[in-house]
Amino acid sequence: MADGDKTSLADRVGEVGERVRNSQAWESIFRPGSPFKKGYTDSPRNRSYVIMNNVLYHLHPVKVKRHGVRLSYTLCLGGLSFFLFILLTITGIFLMFYYRPTVPAAYADIEALSTSVAFGSLVRNMHRWGAHLMVLTVFLHMSRVFYHGAYKPPREFNWVVGVVLLLLTLLLSFTGYLLPWDQLALWAVTVGSNMAGFVPVFGDQVKFALLGGVEVTGSTLLRFYVLHVLFLPFIIVIFMAVHFWRVRKDGGISGPL
Amino acid sequence: MPDIPEHLLRRSAEARAEALGVPLEQVLAEMGLTGEGETPPATLEEVTLPVQPANPDTTIPEDLRAREAAARQAAVDEFEAKATPAPPASPVVTGAPEEPAPVVEVPAPVVEEPAAVVEKPAAAAAAAAGSKIPEALLRRSAEAKAKATGRPVEEILAEMSGGAPAEPAPVVEVPAPVVEEPAAAAAVAAPPTGEPTAPAQAPAPDGDRTTTITAPPVAAPQGTPEGVRPQRLLTVVRAKAIQQVKAEPTDKVSVWPHLLLIEFVALLGVTAFLTVLSVILQAPLLDLANFNLTPNPSKAPWYFLGLQELLSYFDPQIGGVMVPTVVGLIGVMAIPYVDRNPSTKPSDRKFAIMFFTFFLVASATVTVLGVLFRGPGFNFSYPWSDGIWFDDLKDWISFE
Ligand code: HEM
User: Fold this and answer.
1) Which one, out of B97, B230, B291, B298, has a CA that is 20 to 30 A from the CA of B386?
2) Which band of pLDDT confidence, cut at 50, 70 and 90, is reported for residue B316?
3) Where are the domains of chain B?
4) Which atom of ligand 1 is nearest to the CA of A252?
5) Cβ(B184)–Cβ(B243) under 8 Å?
6) Residues 6 or more apart whose Cβ sits within 8 Å of residue B289
7) Is B219's Cβ below 8 Å from some Cβ in A?
8) What is the ipTM of this complex?
9) By three-state DSSP, how is residue B236 classified?
10) What is the best residue among A247, A248, A253 to mutate for testing ligand 1's pocket, by most ligand atoms within 8 Å of CB?
11) Nearest CA to CA, how far is A38 from chain B (Å)?
C-alpha cells in the first residue's frame, strides 16, 4: 500500500513536471535551442543557439578562441570586475533602503543597519569589502592587459576606455567612503579633496564644486550620495557597455602571445 | 529586386566617373544604363546572363565562371522548385542591379552573427587566400566527430579529405562596383559555418577586389528548432573595407558550455569568498564625524595613500597634480599610442615590461608606505613597534 503510494507520487510529480514543460508558458520563456527546453540535445548547432537565441548574445559571441577560455589567460579579472560591480549594485540597493544622506541621520542609520537589521551587517560588509576588491581586480586586470600587450592595435581605444573605467571605479569608491559619516569618512574625504585643491589655477573652484562648499558639510554628503548611487553608476555602465562591445569588435580576446 | 530610380543610378555614375577620372558614358555603359538597354534583371532567369565585371581590374578566371554558372543554374532550379518568391531577409546586399538576390535562399547549417561573418569568416577567408585548414584543426574536428558517432577517426579523416564538396555548391556573386559608392562594391561572402573545420571551397581571383565563396554543400537542416528560419547571411565587403576580412582559421570553442561554465564557477567563487570575508571581518565604523577633532594621522582611502605619500615628498603642485593627472591619467591613456612596437611577445617588449613593472612596484611601494609606515603627524613609524595607523586594516592585522 505504502509502496504503491510512493510510486504514484513520484509519477505524479514527474507528470506535473512534464506538463509544465509542455505548457505554453514554459515554451514561451525559452527561445529555441535553450537547454531548458524539452528535447535539448548537446550538438554543435544547439550550442550555437544557446548563445544566439539568448540575451547573452549581447555579451558573448557563439565561439571564442580556445586560448581565451583558458583561465590562466585573462584570470577572469575583467569578468570579475564586472561581476563585483553587479554584486555592489545589489548590496548597495539593499543599503539604500536603510540609509538617509543627511548629517543627523546618516551615521545613526549605518549604526542601526549594522546592529538591528537582519543581515544588515553582512550586507554592509560585503558592500565595503567588495568595493575594495573591485578596485583591486580592476587594477590587476589593467596589469594583465598590459603584460599581454593587449592594448596594441586594434585595441588602443579600449585601453583608453579602460582607464576611464578605472577612474570611475576609484571615484565610486571614494564617494562611497564619505557616506557612513564617521571620523574615518570625514577625514579621509577631507584629505582626498584637499588634493583636488592643488589643481593649478582652478584648484579652489574644483574643490568647491566637489564639496559643494569650502569644506566637507551636509551638502557634500548629499552631493557624494547622488554621485555615488546615481550619476557614477550610470556613467560607468555606459563605459562598460562600450568596453565590452569593443572587446568583441576588436576581434575578441587578444593573443595568444 | 529593388528597382533603382534612374536619377540615383545617374548620380552614382557621375560620382564614379569623377572618382575614376573616366568619361561618364563609359561608366554608364558599364552600369548597363545605355547601349543594349540592359536593365536590371527583373526575373530570375536573367540572372544567368554573363555577369559583366564592371570593375575593369577584376578578372574572373574561366573555371570560376563555369562553376558559377552551374551554381547559379542549380540555385535557380532550387528556387523555382520552392517557388518562394520572397527573398530571405538578406541583410546587407542591396542596391546591386544585377544582384541575384533570391538565389541566396540556401539554408546554411549554423549561422554566426552577421558581424562575426564580416569580421572573420575564418574558414572562408583562409580558403579564399588559397591557404589550407591546419592539419591540427582538421584532426581535432575529426576526433570529436569520431567520438560523437563512434566511428574510427581514420575513416572520418578520409571522408573529410576525400569527400570534399564534389558537386558545385551554389555561388552567389555580385559583380564588383555596383550602384552605390565604390566603397559598397565587392563580393558576397557566404558565411562559413563558424566551424573552422568545415572546408569551404573558395576559388578566388587572388582575393583582390572580388571574392567569391561557395558555400560548403549544405546538409539538409535537420532538427531546426521551431521558429528559427534557416538563412544565409550575405554581406558586401570590399577587400580594403573598414572591416578587414582577413583571418586564419583559428582554434575556437563554443562559449556554451566552455566559457559560460568557467564564468559561472568564477562568479560562485567570488561570491563565496566575499561572503566569508564579510562574515569574518567587520567593516570599520568609527565615532560620529566631528569637525573639531582631527584624527592624527588623517589618511585618505588606501588607493589614494600613494598620492598622499608623494605629497609628503614633493610640492603639492607636483605630487598632488602633475603626477596623478599627467603620469597617472594622461600617461597611462597614451601608452598604446606611444608604444608603437607591434609585437606582443614578452621577449620583444623588454623595455615596456620593465617600465610598467617599475610603475607598478613604485605605486605599490608608496601605497604600502602610506598605509603601514606612516603614523601620527604622517611621520614614519614601524607597524610592528608603533602599531597600525590605518583604520580599515586595524582589525585585520595585529602585531601584539
Ligand atoms: C570597471 C572596470 C573594468 C571592467 C568591468 C572591465 C571588463 C573587461 C572584460 C570583461 C574584458 C574581457 C577580457 C578579460 O576579462 O580580461 C576586458 C578586456 C579588456 N580590458 Fe577591461 N575592464 C575594466 C577596466 C579596464 C581597465 C582599467 C583597462 C586598462 C586601462 C582595461 C582594458 C581592457 C583591454 C585593453 C581589454 C582587451 C583585452 C584583451 O583583448 O585581451 N579594462 N575588460
Assistant:
1) B291
2) confident
3) 38-238, 254-283, 296-393
4) 40
5) no
6) A107, A181, A182, A183, A185, A186
7) no
8) 0.85
9) strand
10) A247
11) 11
